Amino acid sequence: MLLDNIKTPMLGLYYLATLPQRQYAATQREARCQVPVMVLFYHRVADENPNGWTISNARFQAQVEWLQKRFEIVTLEEGQRRIAAEQNDRPTVCITFDDGYADNCTTAIPWLLDHDIPFTYFVASNHVQSGEPFAHDIQCGQPLAPNTALQLREMAKAGVEIGAHTRTHADLGEMTSEKAIYDEIVGSKRDLESLIDRPVRYFAFPFGLPENLSTAAFRVAFQAGLWGVCSAYGGYNLPGDDSFHLQRIHGDPEWSRFRNWLTVDPRKLSRKREFNPKDYRNHF
Asked: What's the topology of domain 2-281?
């Protein structure tokens, strides 16, 4: 906590000191049509029982309004199209959610729908079907309700892109059996398609760090016909990058970290992408 109290103001100073450089670099990227496509991820938007993966409704709405003034907020499909086209001349962002918390449907989801803001909603299918809280919430002594099947159907009918997030919120990086990986990824996709009566086109890795991903999981997702997969370790999607693997940035409640990422931190721009598409596409 003390370290965070020191790092946060230092990051704010770094952001302000490098802002002129960032603004100049952004102008140059726009001129070259090399503006990155950024994909944000959130988990739970709520004002009660806050934890490390919760953002308040007020802060969430403030962040989205900040984005609306500076970015074009698009679907994952449109974001992929701009990456694959190898050129993008506009600041672009996509919004996603992971896990599937019932609390999101109290305020955040209706607010997004009322403002016609596109987003993708990734859920772990077994938790929707059983109503069982997530293990990470139970471990924290604060079990929280997952989304219900009815909530997902209503979102899908409203035009929300529902995505798969495994069946059990499994760490796929720990799995060595491709059969088990298939069951988690493709099983979740099929569960949700049956539930919402619509195709499920995208998948997001639970936890989403490099150690939670694997070439086998990429291969299973690609061969299953999914349009794209999302990680969650931070990163920019540059025009011409692998459009199947979408790197995502945390929608951090702390403004300094949020703005630092969204204005393109030059230190993070050249970060090495994990997983070569040749490693999973060549087996198809």
From this structure: TIM Barrel (3.20.20)
